[in-house]
Structures are given as structure tokens and as C-alpha cells.
């Protein structure tokens, strides 16, 4: 008989349904290549829309649409600076999720 896998101290064994729902919403918000790229850009520093457009080579309306989705999910926050809005990540935990997913996707799997 094998022993159960050890659980992390900070992870509840049975999260409440509302927590699972919020986690699902968060993962859905991150589940687009452009949004993943935006998160990776913002982990380096806050950026305005035109900087993200230049870095990602994606049309401005598309970047703005993805930023709205990320903002609604609580992933990014925007702060007006003159005529531009500077976007930043709300939480570093999200970067860890995205980096782990990108790293996993780049690994060789049998």
C-alpha cells in the first residue's frame, strides 16, 4: 500500500465551491496566448498599451481587449499616467502560474 502524497501546508484539502469557481475564472482569464504574453511582459515592469503592442506585435484593439479581460479577472490593474494608462500585475502568484505553464509546455514529453 502506498502512502498518500504529502499536501502543501498552505493548500486546503477540499476548497470551498466558491474558491474553486474563482480559480476556474482566473485560469480561464489566463487561457489565451496573448494574455499569457501580456502577463510575461508585465512581470518585468508596468507597461502602457502601445509598449505591449510593440513588444507583442499584436494590433492595439486586440491588446486592449485582452487587457480588459485580465483587468476584469483581477489579474492586472491600470493607473492613469498623463494620457496613458500604465498596467501592472496585481499579484506575483499569477506570474508563477504562467511561468510554470510556459515552462511545462516547453518541456519534452514522452
Automatic annotation (TrEMBL):
| UniProt cross-references to Gene3D superfamilies, sorted A to Z | Winged helix-like DNA-binding domain superfamily/Winged helix DNA-binding domain
Q: One Pfam family, short name please?
A: HTH_5
- Xref: SUPFAM superfamilies: Winged helix' DNA-binding domain
Gene Ontology molecular-function annotations? DNA binding; DNA-binding transcription factor activity
- What UniProt keywords are attached to this protein's entry? DNA-binding, Transcription, Transcription regulation
| Position of the signal peptide | none
Q: Which residues form the HTH arsR-type domain?
A: 15-109
Superkingdom in the source lineage: Bacteria
Task: Name the NCBIfam families on file.
Answer: HTH_metalloreg
Name the UniProt record assigns to this protein: HTH arsR-type domain-containing protein
